[in-house]
Protein backbone atom coordinates (compact mmCIF):
# COMPACT_ATOMS: atom_id res chain seq x y z
CA UNK A 1 0.00 0.00 0.00
CA UNK A 2 1.29 3.46 -0.86
CA UNK A 3 2.38 5.83 1.89
CA UNK A 4 -0.52 8.29 2.37
CA UNK A 5 1.87 11.21 2.85
CA UNK A 6 3.57 10.45 -0.45
CA UNK A 7 0.23 10.14 -2.23
CA UNK A 8 -0.94 13.49 -0.86
CA UNK A 9 2.39 15.09 -1.77
CA UNK A 10 2.12 13.84 -5.34
CA UNK A 11 -1.43 15.10 -5.67
CA UNK A 12 -0.44 18.51 -4.33
CA UNK A 13 2.51 18.63 -6.72
CA UNK A 14 0.07 17.98 -9.55
CA UNK A 15 -2.00 20.98 -8.45
CA UNK A 16 1.04 23.26 -8.54
CA UNK A 17 2.63 22.00 -11.76
CA UNK A 18 2.07 24.45 -14.66
CA UNK A 19 2.60 21.64 -17.20
CA UNK A 20 -0.38 19.61 -15.96
CA UNK A 21 -3.79 19.91 -17.64
CA UNK A 22 -6.75 21.47 -15.87
CA UNK A 23 -8.52 18.12 -16.02
CA UNK A 24 -5.64 16.41 -14.17
CA UNK A 25 -5.62 19.19 -11.58
CA UNK A 26 -9.35 18.77 -11.01
CA UNK A 27 -8.88 15.02 -10.61
CA UNK A 28 -6.05 15.53 -8.08
CA UNK A 29 -8.11 18.05 -6.13
CA UNK A 30 -11.07 15.64 -6.10
CA UNK A 31 -8.88 12.82 -4.76
CA UNK A 32 -7.47 15.06 -2.02
CA UNK A 33 -11.01 15.95 -0.95
CA UNK A 34 -12.53 12.47 -1.13
CA UNK A 35 -9.72 10.24 0.16
CA UNK A 36 -9.56 11.71 3.64
CA UNK A 37 -6.63 14.09 3.28
CA UNK A 38 -6.65 17.37 5.14
CA UNK A 39 -5.10 20.03 2.98
CA UNK A 40 -2.46 22.45 4.18
CA UNK A 41 1.21 22.73 3.43
CA UNK A 42 2.96 19.56 2.29
CA UNK A 43 4.44 19.14 5.77
CA UNK A 44 1.03 19.52 7.41
CA UNK A 45 -0.76 16.97 5.23
CA UNK A 46 -2.22 14.29 7.43
CA UNK A 47 -4.20 11.26 6.49
CA UNK A 48 -7.28 11.08 8.69
CA UNK A 49 -7.01 8.06 10.99
CA UNK A 50 -9.76 5.53 11.45
CA UNK A 51 -11.04 5.96 15.04
CA UNK A 52 -11.60 2.21 15.42
CA UNK A 53 -7.97 1.51 14.53
CA UNK A 54 -6.81 4.15 17.01
CA UNK A 55 -8.96 2.57 19.73
CA UNK A 56 -7.62 -0.92 18.94
CA UNK A 57 -4.05 0.36 19.09
CA UNK A 58 -4.64 1.95 22.48
CA UNK A 59 -6.19 -1.25 23.83
CA UNK A 60 -3.30 -3.30 22.49
CA UNK A 61 -0.82 -1.01 24.24
CA UNK A 62 -2.62 -1.64 27.54
CA UNK A 63 -1.71 -5.33 27.24
CA UNK A 64 1.85 -4.75 26.06
CA UNK A 65 4.39 -5.51 28.84
CA UNK A 66 6.85 -3.03 27.29
CA UNK A 67 4.53 -0.06 27.91
CA UNK A 68 5.06 1.74 31.22
CA UNK A 69 2.30 1.90 33.82
CA UNK A 70 2.24 5.69 33.50
CA UNK A 71 1.60 5.48 29.78
CA UNK A 72 -1.05 2.79 30.31
CA UNK A 73 -2.86 5.06 32.78
CA UNK A 74 -2.70 7.91 30.23
CA UNK A 75 -4.15 5.60 27.57
CA UNK A 76 -6.96 4.47 29.89
CA UNK A 77 -7.83 8.12 30.49
CA UNK A 78 -7.85 8.87 26.73
CA UNK A 79 -10.02 5.82 26.02
CA UNK A 80 -12.53 6.95 28.65
CA UNK A 81 -12.62 10.49 27.22
CA UNK A 82 -12.67 9.75 23.50
CA UNK A 83 -14.54 6.48 23.24
UniProtKB/TrEMBL annotation:
GO cellular-component term (any)? cytoplasm
Q: Which residues form a coiled coil?
A: none
Start-end of Basic and acidic residues biased regions = 20-36, 69-83
The record's region (Disordered) falls at 1-45, 63-83
Protein name from the UniProt record: Conidiation-specific protein 6
